[in-house]
Amino acid sequence: MAAGNSSNDDIPRKAPPTEKQAAAPKKKDGLGLRVLSSVFLISFMCLVYAAGHVYYSLFLLYAGFKCYFELIAINRNEAKDKKNKLSLVIDWYFPLGYAYFLMPKTFVRRILVDNDSKINFKEEFPTMYAILFVHHTFFCALLLIGGLVLFTLSLEKGQYRYQFKRLGW
Predict the structure, then answer these.
(1) What pTM was computed for the model?
(2) How many CB atoms lie within 10 A of CB 166?
(3) Whether the predicted pLDDT of 39 surpasses 90
(4) Mean pLDDT for the chain?
(5) Cα–Cα–Cα angle for 15, 18, 23, nearest 5°?
(6) Is the pLDDT confidence value at 158 over 90?
(7) DSSP the chain
(8) What does the pLDDT read at residue 86?
């Protein structure tokens, strides 16, 4: 061995971490948070499910709306949305149409039609009964066609890719 050389000099040393490596979270750090949040979410779902069909249906509608708006917010471009006057209408039109599609299939039918309540919904509100239950599929199809026509009317030159990407998210 040469003078001044020790056995520690032969060991390769790691370079100091870069900013990107230092900023990246470690996998084990988030494991506890993921487990805790999973236990909380599963417990909350069981609690809402045990509360009854009304609360569970409302929770599912809320979760659906929340997921929809989170998904469309991912690729949102505020500058392009400001140019299109109908973007806000379209953003709300489709989830509300979906809610109309789901409502009679959930707790509404059970409360208003199948349940023997003080109000006879079929006889006292025949128009609403027809819209909600008898011709429900027809009105859902009309809503879907209306939404597609609204989307077609909102198309602007130079924004086709962005608008179709927003529609299909």
Answers:
(1) 0.60
(2) 21
(3) yes
(4) 79
(5) 135
(6) no
(7) --TT--GGGGS--PPPPPHHHHHSPPHHHHHHHHHHHHHHHHHHHHHHHHH-HHHHHHHHHHHHHHHHHHHHHHT--HHHHHH-TTHHHHHHHHHHHHHHHHGGGTHHHIIIIIS--SS-HHHH-HHHHIIIIISHHHHHHHHHHHHHHHHHHH--TT-HHHHHHHHH-
(8) 87
User: CB-side exposure of 82: number of CA atoms within 13 Å?
Assistant: 3
Between CA 67 and CA 55 the distance in angstroms is 18
Q: Choose the weakest-confidence range: 15-24, 74-83, 90-99.
A: 15-24
What pLDDT score does 113 carry?
63
- For tokens 């979410």, the residue is 41
Distances in whole angstroms, Cα of residue 80 to Cα of each of 74, 86, 98: 14, 11, 25
> Contact 60/133 with Cβ under 8 angstroms?
no
